[in-house]
Amino acid sequence: MTTTRIPLIAAIVCLPLITACAIFSTEREFDGAQMFMANCASCHGRDATGSVAMGLNLTPPASDLTTISARNGGNFPWNSVLSTIDGFGQGGHNGAMPAFGEGDLGEPVLIERDGASIPVPAGLLALGTYVFSLQK
Ligand code: HEC
């Protein structure tokens, strides 16, 4: 009897704790792929190649996001990608793409770049990492 009771008691005690942690956790999870499908696929396409009517009809058309590295000598230009998504420093940007930095991209997380720690909103990093993962 005792052997079956212990897991049951453990479950009764632990379950509400786990639920409470999930509700009160301050660290939100950002799923880059999911964010992309919800916010970007309308113009860039679900496959991110820009070959959807909405993206093709824009002036300039929505970019093929799978060839960014290929168009940049094999290097993924993190700075310009993140700032394009964020909308920061896009003074001369006359495209139709909205500035997502105006929305809620979450708390900043620190990333290491060139020996420096740079804070990047977690949601922006998730989107950038997803776009990076799409490079051909
Ligand atoms: C309303 C249409 C629209 C939506 C929505 C949109 N984009 Fe764009 N995006 C564009 C257009 C148009 C361009 C190219 C022209 C420009 O840069 O102005 C572009 C360019 C880009 C670039 C630069 C590509 C390069 O070749 O350097 C990136 C990166 C990008 N978008 C990512 C995203 C991400 C990530 C999202 C979703 C969070 C998103 N876009 C949502 C229209 C859109």
TrEMBL record:
Coiled-coil ranges per UniProt: none
One Pfam family cited in the UniProt record for this chain: Cytochrome_CBB3
Keywords, comma-separated and alphabetical: Heme, Iron, Metal-binding
Transmembrane segments: none
Molecular-function GO term, any one: metal ion binding
Residue ranges of every copy of the Cytochrome c domain listed in the record: 27-135
InterPro entries for this protein: Cyt_c-like_dom, Cyt_c-like_dom_sf
Protein name, UniProt field: Cytochrome C family protein
Superkingdom to which the source organism belongs: Bacteria
The organism's taxonomic lineage, starting at the top: Bacteria, Pseudomonadati, Pseudomonadota, Alphaproteobacteria, Rhodobacterales
SUPFAM superfamilies xref list: Cytochrome c
